[in-house]
């Protein structure tokens, strides 16, 4: 449907009065001036005003193969006509069965049991519920605590939020009591002055072991970690961190849940990052987003054969894993995911990401030369610029909180959307981005940071 500019005046009222957005700030609810984006192609989205912008965050780190892919759209339309829905509770369907098999072929080790969910939060929820369920069957109902990390984000359902460690999100919402434990931030950038990276790594690994010893291994069910802590600010842990954490988990019979909602499906140049990038075979992988390239909602909680075997058959005591969704394995989502995988392979998307990532990371590092930039970090096709406006403080909450939004504002004027988070901007463009588009993206960012520096100087903040 083609809308005229004037139509948006009325639709903006509906958006404000009827659509409650995620992370809705209640102070300004009903008064937002959000930009409408109505069409998109490749790495670009087009706004209501007809402005075409590079989608720096690929939606929410999810539109891997880019927008406007007719093959996925056609496959979904055909599936909707043939069979829009089947009940996963009562029946089977070939499309999600094929998808489960295709996923299992690409996961590390014996992670072959795929439980389909509606997104990332429900995948994490399912993982925690399965871990608890298993410990109930194994006769150790007190082994339930999940160790997570400060700044982690695992989702917005009650359990997933309860293992998420962003302080800012905890203020007004309840958490599951006594179920989680948070390790200190693993960001090497904020390590004490003079501390070597090796010493920092040793300390972070020791944090996990000490937590298990403090709580008691008989009470700790699992450790959950994003390979790269994404919305917490693209925090890349020191090399060897995940491997050593997995060793600690094995030592104390604690399960390892690798949350690959962002790092899966090519973001780091591999189907999954756990084994190929971080050298670990976890017990459970949670994933979503890039699984369908964001064309339709779907997530998955992928469980190892060993875990399933430990509670199946006679060992199950007749238990049922009473967890699941009306839309588990939805055929329209599943066909989109199957097509997505086919396109990844045919177009060599993983190889492409590995090829262009060095340029992306090189241009990202160069942004560190701007005086307001304190740190740049990333891997594959994901990056973060962290500004330090008040150079005497490295606590982001003390800094000019709007600096990320200021950079984003300037970049949008120049043709690029970023994702501002307090004093940071994160970005993870569609994986099909080419060399000249990467250069264009970073050229704009350089201008945006320069203009922001000038703004701050005018305001006396810099
Ligand atoms: N885990 C991670 C690492 C995420 O980044 C997110 C979403 N950004 C989630 C879980 C939750 O996924 P969803 O929003 O699809 O529920």
Note the total helix count: 14
Question: What sequence of helices (H) and strands (E) makes up the elements?
Answer: HEEEHHHEHEHEHEHEHEEHHHEEHEEEH
Structural class: alpha/beta
- Rg from alpha-carbon coordinates: 22 Å
Listed once per kind, the bound small molecules are: 4'-deoxy-4'-aminopyridoxal-5'-phosphate
In short:
The protein has 462 residues and is an alpha/beta fold.
What does this structure look like?
There is one protein chain. Helix content is 39%, strand content 16%. The protein is globular and about 70 Å long. Helix 13 crosses helix 14. It has 2 domains: 35-68 and 349-458, Alpha-Beta Complex (Aspartate Aminotransferase, domain 1), CATH 3.90.1150.10; 71-142 and 186-218 and 227-346, 3-Layer(aba) Sandwich (Aspartate Aminotransferase, domain 2), CATH 3.40.640. With 462 residues, it is of the alpha/beta class. Bound molecules: 4'-deoxy-4'-aminopyridoxal-5'-phosphate (PMP). 4'-deoxy-4'-aminopyridoxal-5'-phosphate binds next to helix 5. 4'-deoxy-4'-aminopyridoxal-5'-phosphate is lined by residues 60, 119-121, 124, 153-156, 226, 230-231, 259, 261-262, 288, 299.
């Amino acid at each position: 449907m083609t809308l005229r500019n004037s139509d948006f005046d009325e639709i903006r009222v509906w958006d404000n009065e009827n659509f409650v957005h995620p992370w809705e700030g209640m102070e300004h609810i009903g008064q937002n001036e959000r930009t409408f984006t109505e069409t998109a192609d490749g790495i670009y989205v087009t706004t209501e005003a007809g402005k075409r912008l590079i989608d720096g965050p690929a939606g929410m780190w999810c539109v891997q193969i880019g927008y406007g892919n007719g093959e996925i759209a056609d496959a979904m339309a055909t599936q909707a006509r043939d069979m829009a829905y089947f009940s996963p509770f009562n029946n089977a369907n070939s499309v999600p069965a094929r998808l489960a098999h295709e996923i299992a072929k690409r996961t590390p080790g014996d992670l072959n049991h795929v439980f389909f969910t509606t997104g990332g939060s429900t995948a994490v929820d399912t993982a925690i519920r399965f871990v608890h369920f298993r410990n109930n069957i194994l006769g150790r109902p007190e082994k339930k605590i999940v160790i997570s990390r400060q700044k982690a984000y695992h989702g917005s359902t009650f359990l997933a939020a309860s293992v998420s460690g962003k302080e800012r999100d905890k203020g007004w919402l309840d958490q599951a009591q006594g179920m989680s434990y948070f390790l200190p931030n693993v960001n090497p950038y904020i390590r004490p002055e003079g501390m070597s990276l090796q010493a920092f790594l040793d300390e972070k690994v020791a944090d996990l072991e000490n937590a298990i010893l403090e709580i008691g291994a008989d009470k700790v069910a699992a450790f959950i970690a994003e390979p790269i802590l994404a919305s917490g600010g693209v925090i890349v842990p020191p090399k060897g961190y995940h491997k050593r954490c997995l060793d600690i988990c094995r030592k104390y019979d604690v399960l390892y849940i690798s949350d690959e909602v962002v790092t899966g499906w090519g973001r780091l140049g591999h189907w999954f990052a756990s084994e190929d990038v971080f050298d670990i075979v976890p017990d459970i992988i949670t994933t979503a987003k890039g699984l369908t390239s964001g064309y339709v909602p779907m997530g998955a909680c992928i469980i190892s054969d060993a875990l399933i075997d430990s509670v199946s058959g006679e060992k199950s005591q007749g238990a049922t894993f009473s967890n699941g969704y009306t839309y588990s394995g939805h055929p329209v989502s599943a066909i989109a995911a199957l097509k997505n995988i086919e396109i990844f392979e045919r177009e060599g998307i993983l190889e492409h990401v590995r090829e262009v990532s060095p340029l992306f990371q090189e241009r990202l590092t160069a942004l560190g030369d701007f005086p307001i930039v304190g740190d740049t970090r990333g891997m594959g096709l994901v990056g973060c610029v962290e500004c330090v406006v008040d150079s005497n403080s490295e606590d982001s909450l003390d800094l000019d909180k709007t600096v990320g939004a200021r950079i984003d504002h300037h970049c949008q004027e120049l043709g690029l959307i970023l994702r501002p988070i307090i004093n940071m901007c994160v970005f993870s463009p569609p994986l099909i981005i080419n060399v000249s588009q990467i250069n264009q993206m970073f050229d704009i960012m350089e201008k945006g940071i320069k203009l922001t520096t000038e703004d701050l100087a005018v305001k006396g903040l810099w």
